[in-house]
Amino acid sequence: MGRADAETDHLPEKMKPPDGGWGWIVLLGCFVITGFSYAFPKAVSVYFKELMYDFHVGYSDTAWISSIMLAMLYGTGPACSILVNQFGCRPVMLVGGLLASSGMILASFTTNIIELYLTAGMLTGLGMSLNFQPSLIMLGSYFDKRRPLANGLAAAGSPVFLSALSPLGQVLLEKFGWRGGFLIMGGLLLNCCTCGAVMRPLEVSMKKKEKVQDKYEAKEMLPMGGRAEEIISTMESTKKSKKAKKKKHKKKKKLLDFSIFKNRGFVIYAIAKFIMVLGLFVPPILLVNYAKDTGVPDKDAAFLLSVIGFIDIFARPSCGMFAGLKWVRPHVTYLFSFAMLFNGLTDIFSAKASTYTSLIIFCIFFGISYGMVGALQFEVLMAIIGSQKFSSAIGLVLLIEAFGVLIGPPSAGLLVDALKKYDVIFYLAGSEVVLSSLFLAIVSYCCLNRGKKRTSQPEQPPPGGGGSETEEAESDIQEADDHLGDNHYLPHNAGGDAANHLTENRNADGAGRPDAEGTVMIPGSCHVDQIVERDSF
Fold first, then answer.
1. CA distance 196 to 84
2. How confident is the model at residue 512 (pLDDT cuts 50, 70, 90)?
3. What is the CA radius of gyration of the chain?
4. d(CA 214, CA 503)
5. Contact (CB, 8 A) for 496 and 469
6. What's the pLDDT band for 15 if we cut at 50, 70, 90?
7. pLDDT at residue 454, rounded to an integer
8. Residue 257: helix, strand or coil by DSSP?
């Protein structure tokens, strides 16, 4: 077999997350995408009064624009997962950026509210969905040990962009009207394509090629006897069997992996998130109207959201750094549960707030707890399900959340219209968030810990996520090293001389390389696989 054939007889290896390098550029792109995805549906609300005047509709009619955007962002999760699994993150994000931009541009030419629903609502919402999920998937592939910090920094894009887009929208409305504002906002959304362009896949490891090179150097150095030929033949048959297994595994890859529902941790997480979103978004949506009804001036009432956004900017990265601590990360699920409990109790204790000072205090605590929830929600999902199935998991979770988003805020609005009391809404929303917190913590502790004692399943880590993927890879390496001793051994002279000769060649060709990546001096009784396959690890 020639060397050209040998170099093609290998498969790509999974790249270890670099936890830095180009990953910081990916983090910046994820920061921008998260900001647009969460802040844009809220920022377009500054145009609602002009839309009501031009199209002769009510506030509830215009509010559906933001609701449709969010529904598309959450509800198209499975479809986005299928596209990512089929085509990859970068192409999907480029198409998503074009769709989001074209939706707002077309909306600037609409003549009725239905056309706005189809363009600014559905088309822009779909485009943002095709950007949001792949950006989180890429972030998880580039970060492992620093992943909690990366998630916290990326999540900070939401309050930062909300603080910037709302005033910008007001300026554009005054200068160019709502049509000109929509057109310019559509141009801004083209930045999503730039963010998608930087989401390059991790490069394939070159260690396989080095291993093949070493194999043929070993074959040249070994005596051409029956023993050496037998060893080389054994090595080649082992490689072919591994290649066949990998090909078989690759063919079984699913566009949307529903097997994640067999993971009890994922099921518990999905149920808790559904209960949480029923009440999580209700207070900030009703806060401004509640403040106005209590006699707070309009400008001061609008400033309350700015307070939440300002606190949220610092709360998310700070919580991400705290969650990344060694003694905290194994228990990140319970930290997430505490964040939800904190948020729910804030709603309940602030239900009777009637002065502007008390509302400011509520916004401070709500901003802290809301930021903690935003920083931890996807980190917990990554820890539970792992990066391999995260693309399917996040799509299904967002679909489940979509039902909660469509049920929660509209139901709260109906209750306000019927009861004319906001305190009942705050009590109800806070109770739902508290319930989700208690459910996640108690059921995770009881069910998952009991299952962990019965059996250990690699695809179902403990509720806190356990160790990182780097630690799992190191354990696989140790198992492979232990397995090497079960095969044939080289004679003392042949194995020792060949190993020493290979070491001299590697030192001459690769000076300055770390010892862990090169072939080392091996005793004469060492197995040949240890000589020729050292670089694969």
1. 12
2. very low
3. 28
4. 10
5. no
6. low
7. 56
8. coil
SS3 letters for 41-110? HHHHHHHHHHHHHHHCCCHHHHHHHHHHHHHHHHHCHHHHHHHHHHHCHHHHHHHHHHHHHHHHHHHCCC
Mean pLDDT of 251-259: 68
DSSP per-residue string spanning 230-247: HHHHHHHHHHHHHHHHHH
* pLDDT (tens digit per residue) in 28-57: 999 999 999 888 887 887 788 788 888 888
- Distance of CA 62 to CAs 66, 351, 364, Å? 8, 27, 29
Q: What is the tens place of the pLDDT at every residue in 411-430?
A: 777 787 777 778 888 899 99
Say whether 220 sits in a helix, a strand or coil: helix
- 466 HSE (CA, 13 A, CB side): 19
Dist. CA 286–CA 424, nearest whole Å? 12
- Pairwise CA distance, residues 512 & 415, whole Å: 70
Structure tokens at 465: 């996520």
Q: Please count the helices (runs of H) and the strands (runs of E) in the chain.
A: 24, 0
Among residues 191, 185, 36, 183, the alpha carbon closest in space to that of 110 is found at 183
Sign of the CA dihedral with 231 first, then 235, 236, and 240 last: positive
Beta-carbon count within 10 A of 231 CB: 23
| Structure confidence at residue 407 as a pLDDT band (50, 70, 90) | confident
Location of structure tokens 């108690």? 442
Tokens 């090169």 -> residue: 518
Residue 301: closest CA among 348, 371, 362, 369 = 362
**Nearest 5°: phi and psi at 97?**
-60, -40
Query: Which whole-number Å values give the CA distances from 424 to 349, 353, 428, in the listed order?
Result: 12, 12, 6
Per-residue model confidence (pLDDT) at position 501: 45
- Structure tokens of 252? 């079984």
Q: What per-residue confidence (pLDDT) applies to 404? A: 82
- The enclosing H or E element of 203 equals none
pLDDT at 118: 93
